[in-house]
Predict the 3D structure of the following.
Amino acid sequence: MSKPDKRDEIVRAALELIAEHGFHGAPMAMVAERAGVGAGTIYRYFENKDVLIAELYEELEDKIYAVLLEGYPTEKPMRERFLHLGKTLLRFFIENPLDFRYVEQFHNSPYGVAVRRDKILGTRNKNGGCDIFRELFEEGVSQQVMKDFPLVILFALAFGPLLAVTRDHILGFVALDDTLIARTIEACWDSVRR
Amino acid sequence: MSKPDKRDEIVRAALELIAEHGFHGAPMAMVAERAGVGAGTIYRYFENKDVLIAELYEELEDKIYAVLLEGYPTEKPMRERFLHLGKTLLRFFIENPLDFRYVEQFHNSPYGVAVRRDKILGTRNKNGGCDIFRELFEEGVSQQVMKDFPLVILFALAFGPLLAVTRDHILGFVALDDTLIARTIEACWDSVRR
Amino acid sequence: MSKPDKRDEIVRAALELIAEHGFHGAPMAMVAERAGVGAGTIYRYFENKDVLIAELYEELEDKIYAVLLEGYPTEKPMRERFLHLGKTLLRFFIENPLDFRYVEQFHNSPYGVAVRRDKILGTRNKNGGCDIFRELFEEGVSQQVMKDFPLVILFALAFGPLLAVTRDHILGFVALDDTLIARTIEACWDSVRR
Amino acid sequence: MSKPDKRDEIVRAALELIAEHGFHGAPMAMVAERAGVGAGTIYRYFENKDVLIAELYEELEDKIYAVLLEGYPTEKPMRERFLHLGKTLLRFFIENPLDFRYVEQFHNSPYGVAVRRDKILGTRNKNGGCDIFRELFEEGVSQQVMKDFPLVILFALAFGPLLAVTRDHILGFVALDDTLIARTIEACWDSVRR
DNA sequence: CATGAATGAGTTTTCATTCAT
DNA sequence: CATGAATGAAAACTCATTCAT
């Protein structure tokens, strides 16, 4: 019972520090201190810093996928499903800025590139909630509701603005409320739908 | 003739290394080595690493703005102007992947955030080609051709997918040709237009 | 037992090297090597080189004050008290040439000037054995046993020759024995007494 | 005519910078800049930095000796000659704080120790105005006007307070006027006279 | 002669990782 | 298992000196 506790503390501390200061602004000693454990203890749970970073990312991904799947209107029309996913994701990021900052940092690092490569090439068996998007887009294309783009481009049209908008919100460049969130996602829908 | 040579070599080396390995994966010693100069030489041209990073970014920005303005169809309808900008930018990034990677790294760093803040708040007098977008979007909104969004969100809708798509192309996840580029930018237009 | 050991070794190594070669002739790497520790270890005990230098000085000061106060003839006439202090200090420096060299280096550096300023302006609460001199001189002036000089000048008359003579002894320009020490301090007394 | 000009400018620049910032706070490039010459030019006049430092010191010494000898009352009694030397030197230093700071820096450095050694051991043929003190003290001892001390100690008794007092004056710890100067030197005389 | 751009060895400091306790 | 003191390789930056122009 004490083992998972420590692990969780380490993960939480790493998330906070990396989200705020970046990978290089979060020395292991600082992570250990904030987690309330010894520096060496981290290495009992994670082989090294890279592994800690990668596992932390995977946990976040799982968390996000769980949120996305919750209340996902499987039977509703595609547009509604798209809007649900977009709004849920945007809201999640806005309410969990640390998670967002971390995910962003991760994607913009060598680690992130490798993970994406695996994911897109389908190497990874566990694609998590990502499949939900893939299915949605594939269905959208095949049913001629969405534009006939490669999946990767549909992802870009849907997520690109979403991430950019979240960043701006967190940095205080724009204040997103529910209305604006909904309208933004609808604009994204305009870009993917026929 | 030898002064600009060295400076250029340093800038080129920094661009390559930072684009490929990030700011922290490009030690000054490595930059010097790749530039074919002594380590101390860099400091004759740039006060410190931060200054080198910032100046390199500014040079890239100027380069990009010049490209965007070239052949900009001032008199044509808004849609065409938007498409021109989008396609030109996308093509530029695809043809200059190092520049793209660098700009991305920069934006995702403390430096970049500060610069964006200045730009959005209009503090910087020299906003370069950025103004061209601002004007376009402001005109689009006021003439009710574009959706009535805050500027920041219009930026996100236009650039978000563009950057995402470029990243994927560079990583080899999708092969963008002229047709795909045109269609992608048109999809972006769908998201901003009424 | 190992913690004080390392710290002591570092302090000792720093004292030796700085005494012999000056602040700039004692790189941290050299201090570490002579102390038999890793370079990074120094920074576990001292925040940076300046702090190491300052703390080392304070330790020396405490040591010196302790020596001065030991056997200080509080009740004896002023002349004897003066001679006691002078002779004790001179002997201490001669027997601890490294300490002397270090204190001298320190006083002749920006650090030292700041410390002296604090001391003279009485800003520092802990003036240590320095007070013993101040009291002696103040009493000497008020009782008209000493010349009516500002304190600073009395200090100069008493310590100036003492430091100069120690330096010469250490450099081998003169060989001070107990008799010569006593006579030298008596000469100093002649300069301050009425 | 232009050669000595440059040399003088270099020497002046070095004096100013070293006096103010110490040897290590006066890079050759800075000396060159302040002197208004190219960095390489310094090396046409001085083999290296050490030589520059040493020659600068010698020039200062000559200057000081010249001042001391001017108006030296050869025929007057010893006391008056002593007071003349002391007061003249003290005044000179107070009026030329840069010179003083430089001389002090020099004495507290490896360079200075070597020079003093040469001087005291009489190795150097050119002892400059130092001889004037030597003669005075030797005469003082032999005529039993001064205490029977080794020369080195008499030097210490005379110069020690003088340098200390100058330092304090420059640092603003005491304000020396003509009266205080005279009284201070008289106090020094008390310490050397029988 | 004069220059000042170029150099690279040397300096302080940080931090991921290990290992004796 | 947990610890955290110790490590040393690596980073940014400085500066005395040289040498092509």
